[in-house]
Inverse folding.
């Protein structure tokens, strides 16, 4: 590690708040996006299955 | 349909319904008039705001007028007829854009110097304002028409149209308003005016093709 | 030629002509200073109009920064190796503001050698280096790669 | 010749929804862990192990997310423009699906580039935001992404929506050129590019390596996100076709 201690790593000299807020916001946005993208295909698959079952039931 | 025939038809239609020419002009003048009332009537403040105010108002006036550019043709089925014809759509669309600019853009161009004067714009900037609006409004019409073509079949196209088109209007606004304030400060303007001219030429040559594609998409063939 | 073909040809010629002229106009406008950005050289040679709002950029001359005894006023010289002029600014300077650093200032040219800044921003170059490397370079007699950089950036 | 044949075969196979679905089914279980791992390695390396910068100190560490995000947003828009063009010429269904799949993460990356840039700008330039060419054109790129998404949402027929969004993407590609060259054309406050395709990069290896790794990571995450969204869209569009019915 480049930093001498974990505290120094969190502090980043005087720039800790800038660096960590930038990474925090980015991580939040990316994670939300990935989760939504993943969930969408699961939801679609479930919906199609439901429609298929309903069609079978009505036959 | 040839260029001149489309042009004549458009001008004749507009002649029968003059409100469509006058309303954008009214809108333009009223929006500009709101600023001295809303901000402050101080001449030096108004003079610095003037380029931006006139341009934003012109931009919105064109945006509103362009929304209905193809709607009547779409609803009456004239568009469908045009789309099935063997000729390319480029020429009739170009004629339509040119006619629309003459009907709604040109009055704004004529009115702009007067509004600049009312906002205490320095005299040496008023001529440049006229040229800038003259070069800039055709670009606004051409880009706006692409958005209008894409949203023609939608009932509530207005807000969506502005979402699609306003980002693309930004360069015209930046350079159009910029060149007027340069002129007010006595700085050289030929470079920016050349850029506005380039945008006008590029958008007017390319936009008809994009508009034609957009109309085909919107009518579903 | 049948009329349909003829029309298509006319369209293509028209589009090419329009785009050609547009490219010419863009090239012309790029040769002009269209963003009111002036280098010290241009200011010293009198290209920049006095009394107008503009942006200037250059390197802060080593040893030229002098602060007012009272208040936040700062005077410093800006150079690009050819011309030099003085900038006055009142306010808090950015962290990266230091002698030898490139800056961009917004403000008014009062006289041909005196600029009143309303805003001073540190222009960072695209050069990154660990501090040890920079120190080693300085010891070896290269003060970073800045002079070249300055030339490249047009300062 | 062989290469060309392979390429055109791929183009046609991936253009077929069924083949694309199968292909992504095989690819994704591998791709998403690799993408996540690469991003994590790049960012942790950049945050904790890369040396600090001689001028900016530690605030420069923001570039390890800022540069990949900005690059991804630009690349995503170009991809959308290409897909739009392909769709205008050949009316390829997959191209429409791709445009819809690219736009959301592209918008997210554009937003991240703007936000992290603003946070970095405060300690470095001395301001969060300047209305200069690079920053403004990037903001326009975010608006264009949102415009594409709004257009897709507004048009009820999915094929028509996809084609309309494609045309808008093609028109908006002009902005990519402005973003890319704004720094050179209008002496923007923003510095020039650090990573150059030709010639040397102005960054030593111990900083450049983690930057390139995070870039690869973010691009891979982009690919995963696009594949997931494209699969969802494909399934829904083709829900009445035989291959989907077979699948469920």
């Amino acid at each position: 590690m480049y930093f001498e201690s974990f505290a120094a790593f969190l502090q980043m000299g005087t720039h800790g708040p800038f660096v960590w807020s930038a990474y925090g916001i980015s991580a939040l946005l990316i994670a939300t996006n990935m989760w939504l993208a993943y969930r969408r295909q699961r939801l679609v698959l479930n919906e199609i299955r439901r429609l298929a079952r309903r069609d079978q039931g009505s036959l | 349909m040839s260029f001149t025939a489309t042009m004549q038809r458009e001008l004749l239609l507009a002649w029968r319904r003059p409100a469509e020419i006058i309303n954008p002009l009214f809108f333009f003048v009223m929006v500009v008039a709101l600023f001295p009332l809303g901000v402050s009537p101080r001449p030096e403040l108004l003079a610095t705001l003037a380029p931006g105010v006139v341009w934003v108002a012109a931009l919105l006036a064109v945006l509103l007028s362009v929304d209905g550019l193809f709607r009547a043709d779409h609803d009456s089925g004239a568009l469908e007829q045009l789309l099935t014809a063997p000729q390319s759509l480029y020429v009739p669309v170009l004629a339509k854009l040119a006619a629309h600019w003459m009907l709604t853009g040109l009055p704004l161009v004529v009115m702009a110097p007067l509004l600049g004067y009312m906002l205490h714009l320095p005299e040496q900037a008023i001529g440049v304002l006229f040229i800038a609006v003259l070069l800039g409004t055709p670009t606004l019409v051409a880009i706006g028409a692409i958005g209008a073509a894409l949203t023609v079949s939608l009932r509530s196209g207005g807000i969506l149209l502005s979402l699609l088109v306003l980002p693309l209007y930004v360069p015209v606004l930046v350079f159009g308003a910029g060149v007027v304030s340069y002129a007010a400060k006595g700085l050289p303007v030929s470079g920016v005016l050349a850029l506005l001219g380039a945008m006008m030429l590029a958008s007017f040559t390319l936009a008809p093709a994009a508009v034609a594609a957009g109309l085909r998409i919107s009518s579903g063939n | 030629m049948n009329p349909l073909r003829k029309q298509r040809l006319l369209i293509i010629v028209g589009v090419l002509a329009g785009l050609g002229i547009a490219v010419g106009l863009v090239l012309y406008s790029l040769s002009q200073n269209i963003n009111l950005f002036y280098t010290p050289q241009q200011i010293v040679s009198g290209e920049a109009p006095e009394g107008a709002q503009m942006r200037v950029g250059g390197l802060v001359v080593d040893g030229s920064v002098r602060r007012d005894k009272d208040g936040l006023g700062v005077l410093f010289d800006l150079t690009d190796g050819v011309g030099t002029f003085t900038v006055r600014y009142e306010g808090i300077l950015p962290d990266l503001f230091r002698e030898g650093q490139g800056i961009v200032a917004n403000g008014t040219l009062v006289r041909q050698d005196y600029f009143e800044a309303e805003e001073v921003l540190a222009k960072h170059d695209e050069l990154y280096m660990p501090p040890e490397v920079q120190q080693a370079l300085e010891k070896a007699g290269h003060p970073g790669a800045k002079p070249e950089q300055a030339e490249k950036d047009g300062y | 010749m062989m290469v060309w044949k392979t390429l055109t075969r791929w183009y046609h196979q991936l253009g077929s929804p069924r083949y694309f679905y199968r292909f992504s089914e095989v690819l994704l279980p591998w791709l998403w862990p690799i993408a996540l791992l690469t991003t994590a390695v790049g960012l942790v390396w950049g945050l904790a192990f890369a040396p600090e910068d001689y001028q900016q100190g530690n605030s420069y560490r923001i570039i390890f997310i800022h540069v990949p995000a900005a690059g991804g947003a630009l690349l995503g828009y170009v991809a959308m423009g290409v897909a739009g063009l392909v769709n205008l010429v050949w009316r390829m269904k997959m191209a429409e699906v791709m445009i819809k799949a690219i736009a959301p993460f592209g918008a997210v990356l554009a937003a991240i580039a703007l936000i992290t840039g603003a946070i970095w700008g405060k300690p470095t330039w001395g301001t969060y935001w300047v209305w200069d060419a690079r920053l403004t054109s990037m903001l326009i790129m975010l608006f264009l992404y949102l415009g594409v998404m709004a257009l897709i949402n507004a048009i009820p027929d999915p094929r028509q929506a996809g084609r309309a969004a494609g045309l808008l993407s093609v028109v908006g590609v002009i902005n990519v050129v402005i973003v890319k060259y704004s720094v050179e054309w209008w002496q923007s406050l923003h510095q020039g590019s650090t990573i150059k395709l030709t010639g040397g990069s102005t960054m030593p290896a111990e900083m450049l390596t983690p930057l390139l790794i995070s870039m690869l990571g973010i691009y891979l995450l982009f690919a995963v996100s696009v594949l997931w969204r494209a699969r969802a869209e494909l399934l829904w569009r083709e829900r009445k076709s035989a291959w989907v019915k077979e699948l469920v």
